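Bench notes, afternoon.
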Amino acid sequence: MLGKIMLNYTKNIRAAAAQISPVLFSQQGTMEKVLDAIANAAKKGVELIVFPETFVPYYPYFSFVEPPVLMGKSHLKLYQEAVTVPGKVTQAIAQAAKTHGMVVVLGVNEREEGSLYNTQLIFDADGALVLKRRKITPTYHERMVWGQGDGAGLRTVDTTVGRLGALACWEHYNPLARYALMAQHEQIHCGQFPGSMVGQIFADQMEVTMRHHALESGCFVINATGWLTAEQKLQITTDEKMHQALSGGCYTAIISPEGKHLCEPIAEGEGLAIADLDFSLIAKRKRMMDSVGHYARPDLLQLTLNNQPWSALEANPVTPNAIPAVSDPELTETIEALPNNPIFSH
């Protein structure tokens, strides 16, 4: 549970959203691009950087353009290059975060034994991994690739730069997931999308969604999308008719609590969207409309969150011949009247 502390609404920090291409089929190659981007951002005074969805080793674009019967080889390759947590990727990113005093939000394909997950990692400026969360419901074609996350990841974390929340892609179309973070008073929301998919309509929808969340939550939104070159599209599929499905859909942006762009969004190519965040704008917005405070009606509408981690094994010990606790006096008397019945023996 989050402590009852007064958050800082007077600070100013510099943030960046990275629009960047992966090194397809290479965990090591993509990780090196992440480390280079962190170092480059540090030279510009950046204190928080957000990378795209499942960026390391790469988003499973193949699952969008290949039928399930043909994607086995591509899927197994992703298993081979996926990230274990903890592991060499998390160690390298943690060290970079610590070296540059930067908070890093990174999307990875996480492997846990026989399953892959769409995972978001947040490293604090001292290198500590303060959040590992999994996308609660993979979208459409993604369900052939990743398992489901749980409610344990629907939480905000306090970092050097402020209180952060994170969701991936179409989780932003789940209003209850967004509200779970809003109710925990996120100051900066980190959004991650794959980019280079579906066309301009995807970018247009993304902009509407992310700017609306900034307004509704009264927080800053930093959104990062990936980028594919023409050569990379050929690497994913030689069927050029499918390349249209691997184009557009890029919207890397930083948005104020008033729903305004704080820098020019990036729609094509690689680059960093960088802006300074003035936290007094959070209070300015929430003075008018605080969705989880003075504008809320918890007597009418409340959200119930199951924040317990999911597990396939519930290892609770079972005591033989145990009796359930009872509070009904008559039932207690009945049980005590049967001392020779082994079912009720103590």
